[in-house]
Amino acid sequence: MDQLRLTFLVDVLLGVLLAAIAGLGFLMKYVLLPGREAAQAYGRQVTLTLLGLDRHAWGVLHLYLGCALLALVGVHIVLHWLMLPGLFARWVPDARRRRRLAWGYALLLALLLLLPFLVRPEIQESGPGSGRGGGRLRGMILGDL
What we know:
Shape: flat
Largest sheet: none
Number of helices: 6
Number of strands: 0
Structural class: mainly alpha
Strand content: under 5%
Order of helices and strands: HHHHHH
């Protein structure tokens, strides 16, 4: 396959993956609501599924598609590598400034990509009634006494 057809195929797949990732994000945000929002919308505790998958399973698919998108963006950059330095040199004629911008951009990308692996979550002890439900179950049990 020649480079022009490969580039076209990669770009088409990038568009499909981008639309799928956005669509799954909208699905998880607005259709497959999390517990508290689902209870508010439907008046009771419910589990929402689509095609037998809950929002967590769709989230896993969302992650895998994101990884595939990231890999295809890498392929896209490789396919356009000869063009990129020429454009960059035309837009930023000073070689020293161009080098600084390139290193800054590379560091920004590395930081954004690796940040989830560099942070630690806040850990808080949660006793009875201190979870997301705000003690509703405990209040219902104690209220029945």
